[in-house]
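Exercise 3.2. Students should predict the tertiary structure of the chain below and write it as structure tokens, then compare their answer with the key that follows.

Predict this chain's 3D structure.
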Amino acid sequence: MKPIHAVFALFLLLVLAGCAASPVGSYQSTAVSNSILNSELALAARSYEGIDRNPVVIIHGFLGARLADPAGPVWGNFSTATFSDANLKALGLPMEIGKPLAALVSPSVPAGILDDAEIRFAGFTFRQPGYGLAVDRLVKAGYVDGSRPLPRGRKHPNLFSFAYDWRRDLPESAAKLHEFLLEKRRYLQELYEAEYGVRDYDVQFDLVAHSMGGLLARYYLMYGDQDLPHDPEKLPELDWRGCLMVDKLLVVGTPNDGYLDTFRELVEGLVLVPGAPRLPSGILATFPSYYQMLPGASGGTVAFELSGGAGLAAYDLFNPNAWLQNKWGLGDPANDRYWKLVIPDAESKTPEERRLIARDHLIKCLVRAWQFRRALSVPSAPPENCLLYLFAGDAVDTAAVIRVGADGRLLETEYSAGDGKVLVSSARFDSKTREIKMPPFSRSPIEWRAVYHIGAAHMGFFASDAFWKNARYNLLMQPTPEQRVRYKLNE
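Answer key:
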């Protein structure tokens, strides 16, 4: 064999050997693994139990808690009964002129986080995974779920789920989160005193907040249990008071600048699974939280054709006139049959009176939503010891533009990168304008400690090993600046 051929053959042999060789100890292997292996430190972190392990609170997203009223379940297991007038009445929120949103109370209340859902349609029964998957993965990582029996050898729980009414105003839910954290703090302080002899320990929480839950959690960190001011032009005092009890917030698939499907569902209703009946917009549009997730500049665009072929322009979805003129949601008189279910003493009122009540509710929800979103858009860095991590999906086509016809009907949709519900640009809160300016850096009012892009659908984050590899490290092993000093980790 000629020398040059021998050299080439040797090179080819080495390349082929590199392709087939075990990645262990190899410089050449290009193998990719999705498995999770634990280092010695990771195993120690998983098994550690003590007052220095922050308890974790899971905060679910939209639709993510069971609802029940005195007559029984309202939301959580789904069948044709879910769409009966009796259940729709229990699911909707009441509407009345002269009452603020906080005073419009439904008899149905949260009845626990939606761990999974039983769905029964057309003779078929199947289960849809919910937040039970997140709980299970955190338990596997070493946390002890407070809703389950205490495992052998464990002294106390350190994992809790905050179930809130996902239909209601988010600042209202943030105040309930504050009460929840105070309750768990007192509970753990009693356990710590009994077990470790430490009195009034300064318990700090780590939050894992999914989807709309991330908006709730961000508001809580920035404003605590403060309500929005009565004057919609004003904002609450931004003092990051929620960070007094929170060390870390993992924001997962959150529409920080809204998402486009909120608009479509408020107009056309919501289909939970293919083939199921549609939840009517006349009921969904009574939920204040829906409006608080309407798309802003980086959350998607609802566009209409300018006259004379001058191009497209975007609707301001926080302007009630857009809804009333196009007969969308509560601006659509065809929803009167559903308004009869949720307006107190509805049968004694004329259709015109019910229309005015719905109009009033629409305006209240939009004004409140715009004030809420402005509060979350204020640029401000969190305190040094309050760390914000973002997990955003960027591998699924996600609604980015909806075109509207001259008659107000929704036409074709354009798509961009996201998790199927939330655009990655909204999760990162990239820009406050629809015009991209150079240089094209990510422009966000939120100062993230780190941003992780995950190839997962909206509920797929909790099934993703890529998500859990990073989430576990940040929760179990990443110290805050204060912890670095306390435990002399820089020495």
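Discussion points: The chain has one domain: 59-486. The chain is about 35% helix and 20% strand.
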